[in-house]
Amino acid sequence: MKITIQNYIQTCILCQQFNINHKKPVGLLHPIELPKGPCQLIGMDYSGPFPTTPEGNKYELAITDYFTKWVIAIPLPNQTVLTTAEVLYEHYICIYAFTQILDYHHIKSTPYHPQTNGAIERFNSTFERQIAKLTDQCINNWDMHLKSVVFAYNTGQYATTKFSPYELQFGRQPKLPPEKSPTSYEFSKPNDYFQFLQQTLKIYQQQAYHNMKKNQQYYKQKFDANRQDIYYNVGDLVLKRFSTFPSKLASLYSHPMIVIEQQHPTYFIQDQNDQQIYRVHVSQLRPCKV
After folding, report:
1. Are residues 20 and 56 in the same domain?
2. To bridge 75 with a disulfide, which of 19, 57, 113, 142 should be the other Cys (CB 3.0-4.6 Å)?
3. In a 3-state reduction of DSSP, which class is residue 159?
4. Rounded to the nearest 5°, which phi and psi values hold at 163?
5. How many angstroms separate the CA atoms of 82 and 215, rounded?
6. What would the DSSP string read from start to end of 49-91?
7. Cis peptide before 49 (omega within 30 of 0)
8. CA distances from 197 to 125, 161, 181, 275 (A)
9. This protein's superkingdom (predicted)?
10. How far apart (Å, rounded) are the C-alpha atoms in residues 114 and 217?
11. Could you say which DSSP state residue 202 is in?
12. Residue 76 and residue 49: Cα distance in Å, rounded?
């Protein structure tokens, strides 16, 4: 009788849809392979819509280098594919000679799983809070403060690299207005500074890579502690966690859906009612017992 009762409770669809699991979300951390230098891997993301400014802008597109953490951010009136391509070409490729993007491999982040694009998501969270403090609510001039926020971000020390993005990008510390400029530079030959810059950047980048690798291993060990790594097979029934809830009494998970493709930790599931396909992270799934 005990086993019968347990099976009955475990196969209750309402219980599976509404009950809260107090354990850590399933799925281990899968860190992105670190680039060995600048201009090898970039992340992009839109933020908005924000209140429309007098210039007609209501979105912000941020682009970051995954090695240096250097960020550029551009206010835009829309987020179309054409606008994105134009900004990427004019504000990144033409300035930083990032020609590898012409032979690119586009990796899409999983919906409602911001850890996939963590570097740019971190900037956006910082940017939004700083802009909120500076914006004049009467005229919605947030785009006027965007460059100042980006400057502050790029000149601050990054926790994982132990360098500021500015240092890894230009091979020297930023000279801020309160600081005194050096009176003179002494180089015996015109190209000595270039050689000095190359050596400095090499030292900075090697140390930054070591720091990022060390922190990446630490974060993975901490994240994975006491966390399950569940695998699903094609044909399994699962419940998908909702990203928003219409009320506090709404169900947390969807009705049963079926796994149609496995790319662990990402899965493609299909709603058998309307045939719609969803791309979800394993942490957003719950096994369905029927």
Report:
1. no
2. 57
3. coil
4. -130, 160
5. 37
6. PPPPPTTS--EEEEEEETTT--EEEEEES---HHHHHHHHIII
7. yes
8. 33, 19, 18, 57
9. Eukaryota
10. 19
11. H
12. 10
Tokens, residue 270: 């299909």
DSSP character at residue 148: H
- Alpha helices per DSSP H over the chain: 2-10, 13-18, 81-88, 94-96, 118-134, 146-154, 165-170, 192-224
Q: Which two tokens stand for residue 286?
A: 């719950």
Kindly state the tokens that stand for 47. 């933020």
- Residue 288 is given by DSSP the state -
Helix axes 146-154, 118-134, angle to 10 degrees: 130
Structure tokens belonging to residue 115: 């850890």
Closest CA to 98 of 201, 169, 184: 169
* Residue 36 included in any domain: no
Between CA 163 and CA 209 the distance in angstroms is 11
Residue 32 covered by a domain: no
Successive 10-residue mean pLDDT values, the chain, 290 residues:
74 81 83 84 86 90 91 93 90 78 57 61 76 73 88 88 90 78 65 80 89 88 88 92 81 90 91 90 87
Q: Is the pTM of this model over 0.70?
A: yes
